[in-house]
Amino acid sequence: MYKFLMILIPALITANPLETAYDTILHVKDNRVFFKDGTTLPYDDKETKDILEKIKNPDIEDMLYLKYNKNIKTRNDAGRIRNEELFKKLYGENRKEIEKNLTTIIWLPNHKAKKILFNRNEKAAYNLQLISNELDKLPKKYMKYITNISGTYVYRYITKTNRLSTHSFGIAIDINIKFANYWKWDKKLSYKNRIPKEIVEIFEKHHFIWGGRWYHYDTIHFEYRPELN
């Protein structure tokens, strides 16, 4: 009995975050990510990289390199490292497949009730609907930030790269651009934010990360990343 517990408890503690975050991932072992459909992807490419190279050419392990930090004063770029092959496996191999996986969410049912598209896979749309339902109950003063959103699904590449945006997979949402602060608009990287913490906390409660916690900040951007948050 005691030997069994000694074996089981360390296994639970050391479980890879991907295994608990995504329904279709069976386990991570022997340097492979195993999916429930019998396919696999390589986990660690064994290459030595600095943070910029991890962003440009990441393996799956690199995605977990930085811990998502909820302290704005010690921001990092957790979440900006994204392995595209993993996202294709989770959300759709190409544009056609991704669009088949999109479903409609009623955004803020009691405030304009806008229909938006989000990926149903891995409970992404489900969690965004929970977020919408909670945001809908906030006092009127918060509505200016969230009723007029800037977008969810758009199949596009990140500017000046060959990497797909998470908007391309239907797992990201930008709220009202009127209140945006974005690092590329400020060459000095002088951090500013106008998004209330009450809104951020509701997103984070349901497994979304916030671009306002990044060193290269994007304060209206939220994306579904349950392996990090």
Plain-language structure description:
With 229 residues, this protein is of the alpha+beta class. The chain has one domain. It is 27% helix and 15% strand. It has a three-stranded antiparallel sheet with strand order 1-2-3. A hairpin with a 2-residue loop joins strand 1 (25-29) and strand 2 (32-35). The two termini are 34 Å apart.
List the total number of helices: 8
How many discrete structural domains?
1
Show unreliable segments.
Answer: none
Mean pLDDT reading:
93
Tally of strands? 8
Radius of gyration: 18 Å
Distance between the termini: 34 Å
Order of helices and strands: HHEEEHHHEEHHEHEE
Q: Biggest sheet: strands, sense, closure?
A: 3 strands, antiparallel
Helix content: 25-40%
- Quote the beta fraction: 5-15%
Broad shape = globular
The strands making up the biggest β-sheet line up spatially as 1-2-3
Provide key terms for this protein.
229 residues, alpha+beta, 3-stranded antiparallel β-sheet
